[in-house]
Amino acid sequence: MKKSLLFLFVFSLGPIFYAQEISIAANDSYTSCIGAVVDSGLSAADYGANENETITWCPEAPETVLNFYWVIFALDAGSTIALYDGDDVTAPLIDTYSGNDLQGLDVFSGADNVTGCITVVFTSGPGSSGNFGAYASCGFPCDRPFAIVNPTELQPHYACLNEPIYLEALSSTVAEGQELVSWVWDLGDGNIDDTSGPTLEHMYTSPGLYTMNLSLTDDNDCSNNNLLDYQILVSTNPDFSGTSSDVTMCVGDEIDLTGAVTGVLYNAEPSVDFGDGLFIPDDQGQCFSSQLTFTSFNAQDVVTDANIDIENLFMNFEHSYMGDITITFTCPSNQSIQVHQQGGGGTFLGIPVDNDALPDDPGIGFDYWWEPGATNGTWGDNAGGTLESGVYESVQPFTNLNGCPLNGTWEMEICDLFASDNGFAFDWSIEFAPELYPEAISFTPTFGPECDSTYWEGPSIVDDGGDCNVVTISPQFIGEESYVYRGQNDFGCYYDRTIDVTVVGTIPTVTADQNQYCGSPVTMMANVGDVNAEDCDFIWSPADYLTDTDVQSPTIDGLETTTEYTVSVSYSTNGLTCLSEASIDIETCEITIPDVFTPDNLNVGGNNTWRVEGLEAFDGVQCYIFNRWGTVVYESIDFGSSAGWDPGVDGAAEGVYFYVLEIPCNEGNQIVTEQGDLTTEFDCDGMVPFTGTINLFR
Known about the structure:
Distance between the termini: 165 Å
Helix content: under 10%
CATH class of the largest domain: Mainly Beta
Largest sheet: 5 strands, mixed
Number of domains: 6
Number of helices: 2
Strand order of the largest sheet: 1-3-10-5-8
CATH architecture of the largest domain: Sandwich
Shape: rod-shaped
Radius of gyration: 55 Å
Structural class: mainly beta
Number of strands: 54
């Protein structure tokens, strides 16, 4: 059943007109910017034998250029179409065509054609039959822009996860006198950007191989048809297995930190994006198409022999009038194969909803294949009733596709040249020979082994190991320290792992109540800071002259020579035992005794005392004073700076007296005496005597 209906297409098509097919046999002239010129058989039949028809088609004012897009051009050998660039056959001949010469091509009136008209002369021979049809539109076919992205950069572009990449298409070209008005970036990750213009910043959130394409449109509504397939490899996150983890260590110890980073394989099977469902309304003003974009083949691969390299072309489809439509598949190089060319009349495809009240409802699609080796005829050869699901021959040979690139955008185009009836294409695909598909897409980022690619950073590294991957650390302070292992791969991506080092133990210091032993005991103390001393074990060495060797605060007595004492502190925490040491030097005495006696002039009148200064450090100094007859007039067994002889008290007479000082001194100590300009040193060895005279005046 034929119907005259108006359908709303799911895409924005602008105003919808009641376009119509114009038979070349029924019109001498026609003026319009829409519609289609078709053969005399219209949708029901082919043209006949011995036809000689002419039509002059002119553009509507103010348009001055007419364009014919030849959807069907299948003339037999005895038929021709001659096109003249003007309003009659006296105009310049554009060319004469036969066979499939004009299939899928545009022909438009020239710049010198002031009428803008094209005159079409069709001639068929005896016994001829065939089909032709062309959409009419006004204006020149597009001089398409050409997309160029990042022209100075070699592909692929290496990118890092969640870091911006920059794409620019400022070098793209456009026809003279035109301007680009639209940039639509397909980033390959499901994101479409139509707002950024010619420059774009984008981040990828998953590793992989992404294929970016750019669609340009100029102010003449012309779009580019070059497929960039600009490849972007996004690095996988690396594997840090083998890198040291958080550690607890003793202060002052040395340990090694190991860094290890390797790239992770990205592996993905090749894939294609399949066409979406496509509604085919009854609109003779244009064809409707759907695209598949292949990006997984090797860049140089082409169809060498389509009869071998292409397994089939497939479509799941329904339509209520097979005779209305043409179906064409076009490859990225614009080569095409027409698999159905009208014919078949009112044969159903699938199970359409053939109801005037439900024009927009899809029916049930049948699976149809076209294969190079099919021998059961075309759709038209099998017309009648409902065309069964199955494999059919193509109207045109598959060899039309020899030389087509595998990668790129393949297009399925359905044209409805005649009024009434509609259909739906639910799915379609192209199946290539299995051996053409590439191996799985894979890549592994790599890291260099030296310090310019991988290295440690931290506060207490004492040895970088030469390659910065295994470093030695020796913290000297208690607390927390952080170390970062960094790596840069061949994508230029930086990664790092941070570990925390907990430094425990104690940093002891040793103090003493005095740093010289001068006969009196010296007490030392091992200070352990904030650590509880009860959790520590102490060992002192050497053991000489110590009262204890395993206490925090031992005592020295009887020291005979200057000695360095060392304490070893053992502290246990978190299952870790830390050892640390500290030392102190305890010196033996060097005491200077000046030869100064006060007062300078002693007299028998009393109230003046003879003293010797500088004896504070000695215990048990013995002092004896004799008169000239050898009689002891003064004796003290604990003579020090506070003691002295008062001649007046003793009733001493005028004259010369003699004194003897006996100073006790341990071995190793020294006594230095100063007598005028003379300094004398004595090594201690028991009681050291000093003698001299005292003059007593009246």
